[in-house]
């Protein structure tokens, strides 16, 4: 039996995705900026397992402007023609009725044309209750000729009323009755939205005054700029300070497991594989997963609080100098967690030219796949001391510097391209909605960070296991690990060694760099496996100690940092870029260009470090 379908649609920042989580129990990303939810999410309704709820991308209007809105409108129009779609839930922000009602009237009109029933969910009712405000729900419902339910996705208020309404609706036979909006043009709908909001909306400007006070601080030319740099610095400083205890705990657990498991393996071949490949290779990578959790949590905190849109507004003027827009900031910062959602988020950029330039900048953002590489090299070459009474850690400062360097390179590339390439696109003005400030929900943020870290491990884990297995086999045979240099891996390493000799790197690092073209984080697992084979007769030691004991020059470590900050080493990113930009040639040019740029910059850094040392 086919499942009935219910559509959940609404404008960005209306709390739609949080309602989707509540209604289905799924763990979908919730963000407070248009462009984050770009895919269609589905899930069975709680209490109604035979009914599927479909979460559509947020859009301000059914007249699409951005690429993301085109996705939402296209899916919505196709869904209205689907006989399995029995009901549409349209989410509005009760604190901003006029903005939401224009889109709602469009949805009601199109649903009437297709005979679909609609229920309007007036979300954020908890915010009105907190400030002692209310609005005329019954009057608005009568004016719309559509049921309006006041709900709160954050507190869960009245969610059971949604389920009751859907059950009643699905039991009704035939098409929904056609009403008053059937042939109303969009121009009249906009005027109607203004009148309805004025007549039935909450009275008082307490919400506007509260937001204005915070905006006066965060958007001020002085305090806004200072707070922006402080927040960004704390973001990157926290990667080391907040995650350090968890990293130490993971390292201790892995070491204890290795000490307990390895002696129990009777076969020598299996024992070496367990020690060198599993604990040496994959284990070395798992140590850095807590940092990905912390990074995702902090970015989610900025998104859900409403600050991220303010940061985009602050960055608009500086980004214009590099051919970008303030809307580019969100995809670029999303790329700090992972380039792929950053590329998807670029759909929210109205200007095709600025969207293309943003695509070029995102792969240079210091994504979480680079994080294990950065952490490994910084821990090996940068002292762990502090300054200013412990407020500034040298390793955290180095992390901030390499993150800033990657972002600077992204801006450098877009600035050069925007000034040297011909502009065949018609540009569009910069228009950005500033969502209200809200206190983020701690549990959804922690759950999302956990899911992101888990997804990273499962996605990268398969690649790392495969590469680790191949590297271990090549390094272990034909002499069973007695001499790594004489192994098959050593022979292959001698072939690639001349390419990386100008960076002061031997064949081991050359092999790790080549394997990392599958995914950047593979670099750590490959090195862990190689050093694990070399230290087969010793106790398990952290990978950092192996690198420090290998006498690699600090110039080589800095060169590696620079190389990984620039090189485009992610097959998944290349595939998504080709799909979104609809240009394979652009992706191939970016891959080759960024590799040459990375190599030249790394050689220059190594030479400069040699002069100063």
What does this structure look like?
This protein is an alpha/beta fold and 613 residues long. Among the domains are: 4-204, P-loop containing nucleotide triphosphate hydrolases (Rossmann fold, 3-Layer(aba) Sandwich); 447-612, no CATH class. It has 26 helices and eight strands. The protein has helices at residues 16-24, 67-80, 97-114, 125-130, 137-144, 159-171, 186-200, 206-218, 223-241, 244-261, 268-286, 289-305, 307-320, 329-337, 339-345, 352-361, 371-381, 394-420, 442-476, 488-500, 507-515, 522-534, 543-549, 554-566, 571-581, 584-612; strands at 4-10, 41-45, 48-55, 85-93, 117-123, 148-150, 386-387, 392-393. The strands form two sheets. A six-stranded mixed β-sheet has the order 2-3-1-4-5-6, sandwiched between helices. Strands 7-8 form a two-stranded antiparallel sheet. Helix 3 (97-114) links the parallel strand 4 (85-93) and strand 5.
Nutshell version of this structure?
This protein has 613 residues and is α/β, with parallel strands linked by helices. The protein has helices spanning 16-24, 67-80, 97-114, 125-130, 137-144, 159-171, 186-200, 206-218, 223-241, 244-261, 268-286, 289-305, 307-320, 329-337, 339-345, 352-361, 371-381, 394-420, 442-476, 488-500, 507-515, 522-534, 543-549, 554-566, 571-581, 584-612; strands at residues 4-10, 41-45, 48-55, 85-93, 117-123, 148-150, 386-387, 392-393.
Low-confidence stretches: 29-38, 536-541
Q: CATH first level of the domain at 4-204: which class?
A: Alpha Beta
Under the CATH scheme, the architecture of the domain at 4-204 is 3-Layer(aba) Sandwich
Q: Radius of gyration over alpha carbons?
A: 27 Å
């Amino acid at each position: 039996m086919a499942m009935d379908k219910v559509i959940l649609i609404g404008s960005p920042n209306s709390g739609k995705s949080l309602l989707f989580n509540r209604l289905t129990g799924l763990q979908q990303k919730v963000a407070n900026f248009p462009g984050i939810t770009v895919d269609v999410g589905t899930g069975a309704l709680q209490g109604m397992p035979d009914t599927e709820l479909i979460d559509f991308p947020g859009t301000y209007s059914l007249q699409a402007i951005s690429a993301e809105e085109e996705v939402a409108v296209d899916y919505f129009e196709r869904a209205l023609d689907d006989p399995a779609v029995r009901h549409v839930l349209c989410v509005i922000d009760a604190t901003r009725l006029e903005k939401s009602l224009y889109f709602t009237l469009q949805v009601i009109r199109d649903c009437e044309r297709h005979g679909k029933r609609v229920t309007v969910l007036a979300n954020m009712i908890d915010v009105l209750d907190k400030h002692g405000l209310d609005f005329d729900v019954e009057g608005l419902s009568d004016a719309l000729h559509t049921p309006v339910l006041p709900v709160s996705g954050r507190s869960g208020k009245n969610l059971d009323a949604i389920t009751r309404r859907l059950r009643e609706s699905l039991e009704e036979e035939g098409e929904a009755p056609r009403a008053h909006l059937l042939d109303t043009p969009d121009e009249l709908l906009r005027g109607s939205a203004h009148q309805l909001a004025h007549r039935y909306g909450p009275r008082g400007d307490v919400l506007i005054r509260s937001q204005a006070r915070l905006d006066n601080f965060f958007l001020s030319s002085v305090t806004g700029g200072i707070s922006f740099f402080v927040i960004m610095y704390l973001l990157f400083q926290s990667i080391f300070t907040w995650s350090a205890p968890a990293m130490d705990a993971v390292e201790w657990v892995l070491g204890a497991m290795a000490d307990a498991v390895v002696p129990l393996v009777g076969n020598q071949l299996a024992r070496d594989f367990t020690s060198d490949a599993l604990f040496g290779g994959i284990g070395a990578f798992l140590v850095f997963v807590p940092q990905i959790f912390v990074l995702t949590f902090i970015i989610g905190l900025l998104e859900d609080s409403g600050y991220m849109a303010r940061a985009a507004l602050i960055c608009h003027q500086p980004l214009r100098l590099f051919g970008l827009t303030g809307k580019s900031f969100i995809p670029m910062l999303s790329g700090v967690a992972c380039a792929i959602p950053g590329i998807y988020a670029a759909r929210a950029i109205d200007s095709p030219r600025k969207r293309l330039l943003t695509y070029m900048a995102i792969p240079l953002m210091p994504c979480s796949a680079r994080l294990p590489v950065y952490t490994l090299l910084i821990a090996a070459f940068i002292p762990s001391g502090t300054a200013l009474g412990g407020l500034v850690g040298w390793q955290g400062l180095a992390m901030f510097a390499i993150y800033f360097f990657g972002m600077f390179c992204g801006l450098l590339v877009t600035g050069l391209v925007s000034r040297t390439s011909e502009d065949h696109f018609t540009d569009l003005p910069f228009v950005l909605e500033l969502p209200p400030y809200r206190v983020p929900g701690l549990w959804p943020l922690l759950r999302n960070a956990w899911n992101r870290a888990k997804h990273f491990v499962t996605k990268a884990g398969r690649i790392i296991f495969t590469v680790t297995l191949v590297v271990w086999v090549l390094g272990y045979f034909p002499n069973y690990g007695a001499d790594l240099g004489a192994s098959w891996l050593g022979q292959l390493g001698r072939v690639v060694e001349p390419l990386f000799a100008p960076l002061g790197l031997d064949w081991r690092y050359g092999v790790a760099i080549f394997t990392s073209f599958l995914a950047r984080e593979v670099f750590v697992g490959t090195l862990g496996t190689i050093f694990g084979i070399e230290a087969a007769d010793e106790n398990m030691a952290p990978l950092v100690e192996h690198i420090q004991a290998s006498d690699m020059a600090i110039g080589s470590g800095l060169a590696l940092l620079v190389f990984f900050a620039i090189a485009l080493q992610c097959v998944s990113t290349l595939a998504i870029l080709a799909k979104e930009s609809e240009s394979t040639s652009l992706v191939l040019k970016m891959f080759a260009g960024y590799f040459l740029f990375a190599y030249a910059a790394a050689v220059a850094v190594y030479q400069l470090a040699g002069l100063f040392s």
